[in-house]
What does this fold into?
Amino acid sequence: MSRATDVHRLTARLLGVALAVAACNPPRTLGGPLLGWILVLAAGGAAWWAAPMVDARPVLTSTRWTVVAARRRNTLLPVGAVVLAALTAPAVWLAACVTGLLVAYLLVTDGWTMGSTAPAGTDRTTPALAATAAAAVVFAASTAPVAHTTWSRLPAALALAATTACVALALRHRRAR
It folds into this structure.
């Protein structure tokens, strides 16, 4: 492997570990019993293993969930971090950190924005901006103080619609090239 590949893998691993640890809500988790420490260490170890891209071709060799999960581990990492953050209900400042780390991790591990799969001369900033905008909309909607009101479904629906639109624009941009 080249030095650039090693640096990219290390960057992805560090971002993945930071994302997983932040999603564990360390201020609350580490202040509790020993189980909290074990959760944070397990999440960090799993993220270190899962973070870098899999170099093998995307051919389905088995339908066993363990094989599929190992093959798609860098996709399962952000999904798991989002679920973990939702379960631990972090403070707003920590949720903002998780959102920023999530966007950074996704952009670092995305072959298109890194330039390895994008055709030469393709604008790689539009998908990155779309991902950042989608994350910002979802974060703003998730921190809106309407959770216990009759208006709570409206921001959630608008956030889902905006996220879907951003993802569709990013995918449309990719297919158009």
In short: The radius of gyration is 18 Å. The chain has two domains: 1-109, 117-177. Residues 153-176 form the longest helix (24 residues).
